[in-house]
Structures are given as structure tokens and as C-alpha cells.
Specification:
Blueprint (H helix, E strand, L loop, with lengths): L1 H40 L5 H8 L10 H27 L3 H28 L9 H12 L2 H29 L3 H22 L6 H11 L50
């Protein structure tokens, strides 16, 4: 009888343990299924949470940290690029560098007035001195002379404008604030004008700019394969409107000597 009772107890224990294992497995499965739901519901630490945390409401729309950063960058650009342009007018041997300096002075005088107006309306404090790095660039220019000065001027200013150009595009795309959108529009036109003038000096080192950009890239480049010398490629069909509609707008005016504009090639 004792043996029979022991067998019965052992069988019961096995059933209990088996049931417990099943319960544990079910709980683990439910936890695994619930985790993705929880992880998507709790967005702390994500880009959306960071955007919400850094954004304040204004009468012109939400103002994000990126919006405020652009405002400061426009102000800082004027604090060193305007005096750099004025110096180029006074010291550069060639007329093309003097002309680029003139555009810098005029453009940043206008942009600075816009930035200060926007900052006043939004209640944003702006810096009154260039950064240490920017002051270092001004010292480099002051110490240089002749053609060395001109080459340094063209490349320092071209790299700086190229970097802020990408920031302007990103903020212009994402901002929800009308004042920042207007400032980005003005900055975009001004910076592109300055880039064009600096490149027009013929002194910009495009290899150095490309290598610097490649060193900062985090993703592999994409696009069609490189061309094969001598190979014929099919001519793409033009993108043209269909139907009988009338169109009244005009295309953007190309810069002088634009090699991508068919009209400039004749």
C-alpha cells in the first residue's frame, strides 16, 4: 500500500510540474508578444520624444531646437563672414575675390537684420561674438597675404557655406514655424549666391570638399554604375506635360554660363 501511495503521489507531482511548466511557457509567450506593443507605445528616447521635449509653442507655430539652432547659425555666420568679406574687398589682389567679398557683406548684412528681427519676435537670445573656431579663421585670413590669402579666403568661406547650406535645407524641410521658414528661404538664396561667387573665383579646392564630405558620410553611396568610356547609353525621353493645358510660370533663372542649361549652350 505504501508503494502504491508513493507511485500515486509521484504521478501527481509530475502532473503538477508539467502544468507549471505549461503555465510558465504561456506567460513567457505572452510577455514576448506584449514586448513589441509596449516598446512602440513607450517612445521615450526616440526622435519624436526629443522633438516634443525641445519644442515650444509660439503664435507662428511650434519652435523646435533645430529651428533655434538655425537662427543662431545664421547670426554666427554673419559675425565672421561679413568682416571676412569686407577684408577681402580691401586686401584681395583679384577682382573676382573682391566681388565675392562684396556679396558676403551685402548678403550677411541683410540676413543678420532678418535673424535679429526673428529672434526678437520669438524671444531668442543671440550671440554677439563669433565662435572660437570662427575667430581662428579670421586670424588665419589676417595673417595671410597675396594669392595665399585669396586661396585661403575662397576655401574657408566655401566650406563654411556648404555646411550651413545643408542645415538650412533640413530645417526648411521640417520646420513648423512660419518665421523660421521665411528665414530659411532668405538664407537659402543668400548662401547659394555666396557659394556661386566663391566658386567663381576659380580657387575652390573641390577635391578637398569632396573628401571632407566623404569622411563624414555614414552610409554607402547609391546611384547608377559609373560610365564606361566609349560606351553608348540610351537617350532618355524628355519629361514633358501632356494634354492641352496652358502654363504661365517660368523656370528658375540659370546662373550665367550654366552648362546644364540647353539655352546657355548655344
Amino acid at each position: 500500500m505504501s508503494t502504491s501511495m508513493s507511485s500515486t503521489a509521484f504521478a501527481l507531482l509530475r502532473r503538477v510540474n508539467g502544468t507549471a511548466l505549461v503555465v510558465v511557457a504561456l506567460l513567457a509567450t505572452l510577455a514576448a508578444l506584449a514586448f513589441p506593443v509596449w516598446s512602440y507605445a513607450d517612445r521615450s528616447g526616440t526622435g519624436q520624444a526629443n522633438l516634443a521635449a525641445s519644442t515650444v509653442a509660439t503664435k507662428w507655430g511650434p519652435l523646435s531646437a533645430a529651428d533655434r539652432d538655425l537662427l543662431v547659425k545664421v547670426r554666427l555666420a554673419g559675425l565672421w563672414e561679413l568682416p571676412a568679406g569686407q577684408q577681402a574687398i580691401e586686401r584681395a589682389p583679384s577682382q573676382s575675390v573682391k566681388a565675392a567679398g562684396d556679396h558676403l557683406v551685402v548678403g550677411h548684412t541683410d540676413l543678420d537684420a532678418r535673424a535679429r528681427s526673428v529672434a526678437s519676435q520669438l524671444g531668442i537670445e543671440l550671440p554677439n561674438q563669433p565662435t572660437d573656431e570662427q575667430q581662428g579663421w579670421l586670424r588665419q585670413l589676417t595673417a595671410a597675404t597675396g594669392t595665399t590669402y585669396e586661396r585661403l579666403f575662397a576655401n574657408l568661406l566655401r566650406r563654411a557655406h556648404g555646411k550651413v547650406f545643408t542645415v538650412i535645407a533640413q530645417v526648411r524641410n521640417s520646420t513648423r514655424n512660419a518665421l523660421i521658414r521665411q528665414l530659411a528661404d532668405a538664407a537659402n538664396q543668400t548662401v547659394l549666391d555666396h557659394i556661386t561667387m566663391l566658386e567663381g573665383t576659380g580657387l575652390v579646392d573641390f577635391d578637398a570638399i569632396a573628401n571632407e564630405a566623404a569622411g563624414a558620410a555614414t552610409a554607402s553611396p547609391t546611384g547608377p554604375p559609373p560610365p564606361v568610356p566609349g560606351a553608348r547609353v540610351p537617350v532618355p525621353a524628355p519629361a514633358v506635360p501632356t494634354g492641352t493645358q496652358n502654363f504661365t510660370s517660368l523656370p528658375s533663372a540659370p546662373p550665367a554660363g550654366d552648362i546644364g542649361n540647353p539655352a546657355a549652350q548655344h
